[in-house]
Write a structure and sequence with these properties.
The chain has 8 helices and 12 strands. It is of the alpha/beta class and 251 residues long. The protein has a domain of 168 residues: P-loop containing nucleotide triphosphate hydrolases (Rossmann fold, 3-Layer(aba) Sandwich). Strands 6-9-10-3-11-12 form a 6-stranded mixed β-sheet, with helices on both faces. Strands 2-1-4-5 form a 4-stranded antiparallel β-sheet, covered by helices on one side. A two-stranded antiparallel sheet has the order 7-8. It binds adenosine-5'-diphosphate (ADP) and magnesium ion (MG).
Amino acid sequence: MSDPILQVRKVSKYFGGLTALNEVDFEVSRGEVVALLGDNGAGKSTLIKCISGVYRPDHGAVFFDGNEITGHSTSEVRSRGIETIYQDLALAENLDVGANVFLGKEKLKYLFGFIPVTDDDYMRKEAVKVLDRLDIHIPSLRQKLVNLSGGQRQAVAIARAMYWNAQLVIMDEPTAALGVPEQRKVLSLIRSLREQSIPVILISHTMQDVMTVADRIVIMRRGNVAANVMRSDATEELIVKHIVGSVEAGE
Ligand SMILES: Nc1ncnc2c1ncn2[C@@H]1O[C@H](COP(=O)(O)OP(=O)(O)O)[C@@H](O)[C@H]1O
Ligand SMILES: [Mg+2]
């Protein structure tokens, strides 16, 4: 495996008396799609929140591209190139596609040289470029997000990550709320990120998605990493055994 771009070293996280993460080690290399699996409450979301800056780990450290980012804020983590796409997506429903790609980093122009207004044409043009790169076609970029399908919104969130040069994309259950054709689109977006050497951490309950796109599968159980298997060595049966904790010694 090439040098990891992300290293999580012995990270623990407690909520009161509950150990959500217990000295978790986790790595991701460039261009790798890593699926994170585990039952509800296994600690998947807590782990990615310790990476994305939502939570500060109680112990351990997180390194990205050679720098320690433990305990950095979500905006500091984003500025280093880690984009996290949560299930609720954090998009602005009442703005159009261009404005959403630029959300929080809007491009301004100056009327009469001094009145700042958002440069909507520029933002739409830039959005089209990145959507084209991802082979995503949204009929009207003037549509407000609220009028787009779940898959199109997912595409906008991914386009935003790409536009700002994400170095790592984390997706927490991206296909959970989507229809089948849109799920396929998200999977093909994940592949196109990998083709551009952008690693992806994918949390999913859908075994088939995982078996289709992952290069490596990390299974969590009760706050621990229960298994770390290459896709080529994985069977659905073995994965399920790891998820429920019924793997025989030596297997
Ligand atoms: N903010 C929180 N406050 C208290 N307990 C939490 C919080 N977030 C997660 N937990 C607990 O931590 C454990 C791991 O949760 P989570 O990381 O969400 O699991 P997963 O994403 O694998 O379903 C669970 O027992 C959950 O109830
Ligand atoms: Mg979760």
